[in-house]
């Protein structure tokens, strides 16, 4: 079978000439440095790295497996971004609000030194300060003050006591219900009598009523004076205690000032000085006012260094591969006491990757970020406010215990987000903050040019893979095989895939095959074997399909002619591996007004794209059958023995040909299968998986027996994408199999039905053409329907 659209054997597979690569083995190739074939993406990323304006975070867009992470790492290393004024962050105790730890920000290299200095100060307060209070100097000054206090008391009480003595009275301390009190009692025979002894003498008659009356008058007279003197004594004592405390506070303050001043001289930061002043006051409060029994200076004054930096200009670069909320923010570790959870302190706070990236870059995978609850929201808030708020994973502790609320940390972070196009458009359309925060798009293409420069890039990348994974050297033929596989994976004219992870996997397996053969080099045959092994491992669905063909479970004819039946082509995916297989399509037509019915659609098995393609089929039918009356036939189209969902529009061309065959009763040769989407004017449009679809039908034809008349019709726009297996190419060269690249549906019908399709002239086709017969049948249906009415 010959047709103008038939491709020759050389056109169905592009070959890479190993002699054109310029080397014999990869030992002669310099491994790649940096990124290849992505100049625009690299330029955008460099701009985001070097521009420090707000919102210039970057979204690196491209398919996974294209080396985005390597690209970002390499560019960041090559750019060597600098940062001035690195900062270190630490938390200390907030004495006024213990639930709000205080933030101290220091210059790079100072936090650890500050922490060590505070450890030494805390040890001094815990061990040496108490001993200093018991020193001889302190005791002498305290004793002098106590003596002065006693003298002041005596100056007030002695004249009063002398006056009482003249009146045969004296002062006595007695215990009452109100506590210890000083009262005035009589002196009889040089003996002071307490109230009980006095009453006993009165009852015994030793004291007359006159003496008792005189005593009570004198007591009442001097009691008012005693109250005033007691008030003066209490005031003297109160002031005395203050004086003693002031002495001790001044002494402690002087001792602490020596220690604190030394720290202040090392760290000239206002926040540090304010903290040290607050610490000194807290020490005094703890010693003299609060008298906290659990006072532990070593725990209370220790410094929690969250972030320490080297004092250089090297920019921090952090890659967070598990962007959970806790890993991004940090956390506050819970503390437990004997009776359950207790309030955490400033030492319970830990920082996350957002803090580690302060002043530098944070690299994140967008999909991983979006799958973590709350992570995207927190990232946006941090970038918008330039403040990092470390909060616990749960907003409150167990049993309602309040959590810490650390002071927010000022941060300056540039985020590099790696994601695909779908997620980018979703965020751009649904999240108002995204365009403002991620103003730079680094579009990482999935293909590179298939030319001498592209071959050079591939060779350098393969050399890098060999170097990194310690593989055997590859011959030029082996590298050419990998380049051809890159063209096959890409399936685009004059392009190679940039998903180098796929190429690396084949290279590693080819190395394995060569090692098994005890070779010193990886040859071209090893690459071919590796590709075949990879496909065989995921080939169970294809093998099951062939078994069902062989035992007759699935009916697919590859020879003979059938009316209203055609072999369409579909694909199935097994991970990155794609398999093609034929699918029998049938059509049935009768008089009526129902139009063309999609049985898959009626059964709910049709995807949206397949439904769209089917609707286009109706439009094409009206375009190619320009009748003066309505179409008055009812038709149904079905994918036979298809029990799953059907989607995609690549079968719409085959469906149209099948429908015309049933309408005209012109048989279709079953040895020719077809794939291609149609538009409403009959042009065939490109489809995906063209190589796999052709190979799938070839395998079925081989199983049933090749007869030299079999082949596949594809859109002409897919001709440049062909990278068929070598055995399929050889069959095309030998004339055992054919590939037809057609532009329009008329060419396809001529190949399938063996008759001219016909050319529309003044609304009519040639009488014996396919479309001429279709017009006649359509008129007959119209007449038949009208005759009934």
From TrEMBL:
Reactions catalysed, as given in the entry: Hydrolysis of proteins in presence of ATP
Pfam families noted in UniProt: AAA_32, Lon_C, LonB_AAA-LID, LonC_helical
Superkingdom assignment: Bacteria
SUPFAM superfamilies associated with the record: Ribosomal protein S5 domain 2-like
List of catalytic residues: 650, 693
InterPro entries the record matches: AAA_32, Lon-like_helical, Lon_proteolytic, Lon_Prtase, LonB_AAA-LID, P-loop_NTPase, Ribosomal_Su5_D2-typ_SF, Ribsml_uS5_D2-typ_fold_subgr
Organism: Marinicella pacifica
GO BP: any one term: protein catabolic process
Alphabetically ordered keywords of this record: Coiled coil, Hydrolase, Protease, Serine protease
Gene3D superfamilies: 1.10.8.60, 3.30.230.10, P-loop containing nucleotide triphosphate hydrolases
Similarity comment: Belongs to the peptidase S16 family.
Keyword Isomerase: no
GO molecular function, one term: serine-type endopeptidase activity
Coiled-coil stretches noted in the UniProt entry, renumbered to this chain: 212-239
Lon proteolytic domain residues: 560-755
Protein name: endopeptidase La
EC number: 3.4.21.53
């Amino acid at each position: 079978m010959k047709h103008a659209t038939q491709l020759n054997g050389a056109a169905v597979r592009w070959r890479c000439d190993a002699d054109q690569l310029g080397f014999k083995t990869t030992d002669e190739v310099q491994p790649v440095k940096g990124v290849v074939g992505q100049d625009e993406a690299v330029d955008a990323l460099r701009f985001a790295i070097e521009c420090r304006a707000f919102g210039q975070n970057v979204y690196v867009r491209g398919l996974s497996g294209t080396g985005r992470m390597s690209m970002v790492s390499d560019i960041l290393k090559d750019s060597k971004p600098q940062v001035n004024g690195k900062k270190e962050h630490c938390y200390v105790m907030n004495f006024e609000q213990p639930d709000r730890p205080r933030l101290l920000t220091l210059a790079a290299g100072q936090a650890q030194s500050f922490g060590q200095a505070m450890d030494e100060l805390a040890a001094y307060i815990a061990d040496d300060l108490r001993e200093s209070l018991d020193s001889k100097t302190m005791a002498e000054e305290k004793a002098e003050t106590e003596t002065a206090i006693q003298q002041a008391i005596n100056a007030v009480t002695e004249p009063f006591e002398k006056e009482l003595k003249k009146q045969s009275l004296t002062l006595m301390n007695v215990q009452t219900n109100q506590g210890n009190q000083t009262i005035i009692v009589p002196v009889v025979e040089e003996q002071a009598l307490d109230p009980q002894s006095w009453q006993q003498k009165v009852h015994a008659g030793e004291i007359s009523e006159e003496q008792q009356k005189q005593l009570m008058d004198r007591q009442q007279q001097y009691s008012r004076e005693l109250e005033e003197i007691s008030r003066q004594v209490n005031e003297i004592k109160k002031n005395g205690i203050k004086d003693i405390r002031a002495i001790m506070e001044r002494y402690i303050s002087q001792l602490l000032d020596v220690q604190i001043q030394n720290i202040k001289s090392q760290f000239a930061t206002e926040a540090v000085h304010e903290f040290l002043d607050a610490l000194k006051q807290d020490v005094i409060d703890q010693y003299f006012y609060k008298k906290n029994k659990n006072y532990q200076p070593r725990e209370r004054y220790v410094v929690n260094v969250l972030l320490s930096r080297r004092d250089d200009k090297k920019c921090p670069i952090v890659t967070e591969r598990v962007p959970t909320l806790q890993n991004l923010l940090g956390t506050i570790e819970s503390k437990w006491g004997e009776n359950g959870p207790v309030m955490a302190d400033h030492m319970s706070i830990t920082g996350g990757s957002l803090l580690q990236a302060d002043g530098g870059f944070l690299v994140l995978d967008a999909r991983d970020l979006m799958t973590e609850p709350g992570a995207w929201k927190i990232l946006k808030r941090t970038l918008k406010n330039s403040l990092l708020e470390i909060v616990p994973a749960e907003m409150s502790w167990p049993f309602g215990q309040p959590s810490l609320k650390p002071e927010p940390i000022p941060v300056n972070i540039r985020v590099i987000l790696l994601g695909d196009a779908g997620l980018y458009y979703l965020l751009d359309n649904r999240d108002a903050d995204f365009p403002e925060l991620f103003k730079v798009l680094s579009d990482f293409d999935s293909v590179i040019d298939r030319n001498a420069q592209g071959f050079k890039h591939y060779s350098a990348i393969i050399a890098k893979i060999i170097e990194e994974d310690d593989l055997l050297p590859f011959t030029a033929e082996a590298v050419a095989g990998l380049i051809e596989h890159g063209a096959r994976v890409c399936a685009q004219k004059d392009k190679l895939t940039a998903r180098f992870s796929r190429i690396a996997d084949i290279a590693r397996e080819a190395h394995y095959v060569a090692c098994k053969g005890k070779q010193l080099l990886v040859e071209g045959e090893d690459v071919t074997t590796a590709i075949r092994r990879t496909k065989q491992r995921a080939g169970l669905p294809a093998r099951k399909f062939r078994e069902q063909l062989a035992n007759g479970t699935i009916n697919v004819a590859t020879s003979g002619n059938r009316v209203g039946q055609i072999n369409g082509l579909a694909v199935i995916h097994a991970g990155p591996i794609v398999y093609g297989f034929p699918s029998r399509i049938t059509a049935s037509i009768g008089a009526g007004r129902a139009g063309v019915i999609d049985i898959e659609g009626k059964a709910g098995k049709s995807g949206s794209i397949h439904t769209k393609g089917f609707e286009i089929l109706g439009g094409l039918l009206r375009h190619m059958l320009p009748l003066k009356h309505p179409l008055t036939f009812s038709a149904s189209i079905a994918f036979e023995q298809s029990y799953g969902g059907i989607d995609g529009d690549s079968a719409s061309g085959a469906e149209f040909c099948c429908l015309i065959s049933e309408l005209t009763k012109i048989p279709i040769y079953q040895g020719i299968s077809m794939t291609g989407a149609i538009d409403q004017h009959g042009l065939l449009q490109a489809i995906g998986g063209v190589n796999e679809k052709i190979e799938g039908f070839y395998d079925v034809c081989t199983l049933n027996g090749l007869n030299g008349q079999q082949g596949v019709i594809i859109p002409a726009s897919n001709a440049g994408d062909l990278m068929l297996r070598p055995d399929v190419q050889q069959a095309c060269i030998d004339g055992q199999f054919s590939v037809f690249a057609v532009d329009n549906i008329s060419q396809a019908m001529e190949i399938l039905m063996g008759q001219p399709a016909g050319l529309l002239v003044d609304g009519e086709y040639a009488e014996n053409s396919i479309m001429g017969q279709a017009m006649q049948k359509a008129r007959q249906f119209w007449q038949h329907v009208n005759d009934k009415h």
